[in-house]
Amino acid sequence: MARTMTSDARKKDTREKIELGGLIVKAGLRYEKRALLLGALIDIARRIEGNEDERSRLTAIGVEAFGNDDQ
User: Fold this and answer.
1) How far apart are CA 13 and CA 19, in angstroms?
2) Do 47 and 54 form a contact (C-beta atoms < 8 A)?
3) Nearest-5° angle of CA 32, CA 38, CA 43?
4) Tens digits of per-residue pLDDT, 20-37?
5) Cα 60 from chain centre
6) The whole model's pTM is what?
7) Could you give phi then psi for residue 33, rounded to 5 degrees?
8) Cα–Cα distance between 49 and 55 in angstroms, integer?
9) Buried/exposed 28-57: b ≥16 CB within 10 Å, e otherwise
10) Three-class SS of residue 11?
């Protein structure tokens, strides 16, 4: 039973990582260096910490991008 739970957890983790990778592709950053991507993500994490205006601004950009999926 523990083996099944471990397998299910790994599948869920793998699925989540694939979805997150898809966000990189959707943002047009597929061919950027991994160090640049990580640096950008760390920078954003720091900028949105305690900054609801920046969080809202970036969320609106993301919502718009997802809304354009059918184009």
Assistant:
1) 10
2) yes
3) 115
4) 999 999 999 999 999 999
5) 15
6) 0.76
7) -65, 145
8) 8
9) eeeeeeeeeeeeeeeeeeeebeeeeeeeee
10) helix
